[in-house]
Design a protein that fits this description.
The protein has 16 helices and no strands. The chain is mainly alpha-helical. The relative contact order is 0.17.
Length: 397
């Protein structure tokens, strides 16, 4: 028990909860001069995180593309396509649910309400090295080019770049995140509109949690259809993996438990199972994507008085599926990797991105549990697809 408590008190979730409480206290306690300093700190950190975003894209998407050549067979291709379709499908489901549910929540917009934040006492602008979409296109082109040229030098460089950027995310971005969140909530509390929105956040987290179970049910149903076997023979073994994911908030930390659970199933092909489950732990993030899609809609309604335009949401969803496959293996990895999309496609400001980071972190463990449990359904689908293909080849022979 002692170790579990100590682990929680050192977790990002605990740090963000403390940051939110500290931020609210500061916002209620500080005067205009104090908030000016807080606003300056927040803007500098927001610019710094924006500077890191193109590096995250280059450091994760390009190496992810290059790594495909190591096992670029049919099973890998089919699995990645299913992972992408699952993430995009979950996001579309979340978007449609948001369009139907969010107006009924009667969210009061924070636009033109509360006290005005005074101008920051100083500014230090940190421009990103390139726009987000430029970074995305560059990452894709470089990744494909390295595969075409079979450049070992660039392949090794990209592997090292991946480790460097991951270290920056873990050592710098995750470290300053609580301070950034505290500054954001201090401003929201100073404006006086934060507490009125708290019940909305609670409702939204429960709605998203329900969405996770609906999407998992859909995935396992489809897996049962494709494999012509009972999906219950997979998901009934996944309770330990789900609980481990809830406790660790990490797909990487849960993959060994998930693999042990999947191996108890009699309907999964052993070779496919042992390949797909570890692969999906890094590429199948349907729960995180579903959550982020719903949350950006809620935050947009709260801060900007309206839901994002449909055409912007469609582009956001299609690109988010790509970012999810290459998201870094850190708590909140999906939303951290996609910050560029939130700012460039949905045009969120620093307050919007900080609020997304905060509420996403509060439920990240359940999103991770949905990701991990959904991996069993993907393994079931791939088993069914290649079982039919092998049967067809045997028949033709």
């Amino acid at each position: 028990m002692e170790k579990k408590k100590r682990g929680f008190f050192h977790s990002l979730l605990f740090k963000l909860l403390v940051a939110i409480l500290v931020g609210i206290f500061l916002g209620k306690s500080l005067g205009s001069s104090g908030i000016q300093v807080v606003d300056a700190i927040k803007q500098i950190m927001g610019d710094f995180i924006g500077y890191i975003v193109p590096l995250i894209i280059l450091g994760f998407i390009t190496p992810a593309i290059v790594s495909l050549k190591e096992s670029a067979g049919k099973i890998l291709t089919v699995t990645l396509i299913i992972c992408y379709l699952s993430s995009v499908g979950a996001a579309c489901f979340s978007f449609l649910a948001g369009q139907a549910i969010i107006p009924g929540l009667h969210i009061q917009s924070a636009v033109a309400q509360g006290a005005e934040i005074p101008e920051a006492v100083f500014r230090l602008e940190i421009a990103p090295i390139m726009p987000v979409m430029t970074a995305l296109i560059t990452a894709i082109l470089f990744g494909i080019a390295v595969i075409w040229t079979q450049s070992k030098t660039w392949e090794n460089l990209l592997i090292e770049l991946n480790q460097i950027v991951l270290t920056i995310v873990e050592k710098v971005v995750i470290t300053i995140l609580p301070v950034y969140i505290a500054a954001t909530f201090a401003e929201l509390a100073y404006e006086g509109v934060l507490l009125s929105q708290f019940p909305v956040f609670i409702k939204v987290i429960f709605i998203v949690l329900l969405g996770h179970f609906i999407w998992m049910a859909l995935l396992y149903s489809l897996g049962g259809i494709l494999s012509k076997s009972s999906p219950k023979e997979v998901f009934r073994h996944y309770v330990p993996a789900y609980m481990t994911a809830v406790g660790t908030m990490s797909s990487a930390a849960t993959v060994s438990v998930a693999l042990a659970c999947a191996r108890k199933s009699k309907v999964l092909d052993p070779k496919i199972r042992d390949f797909v489950i570890p692969l999906c732990s890094n590429t199948h993030l349907c729960g995180s994507v579903l959550t982020e899609t719903f949350f950006v809609m809620v935050v947009s309604q709260i801060l900007y008085g309206q839901l994002p335009p449909t055409n912007s949401m469609i582009l956001f969803i299609l690109l988010l599926g790509i970012f999810a496959i290459a998201a870094p293996g850190v708590p909140g990895g999906t939303v951290v990797a996609s910050l560029g999309l939130i700012t460039s496609v949905l045009h969120f400001d620093n307050t919007g991105t900080a609020l997304i980071l905060s509420i996403f972190a509060l439920q990240d463990s359940f999103g991770t549990a949905c990701n991990i449990t959904g991996d069993g359904a993907i393994a079931l689908m791939v088993t069914g697809i290649f079982k039919r293909e092998r049967a067809k080849q045997t028949k033709e022979a």
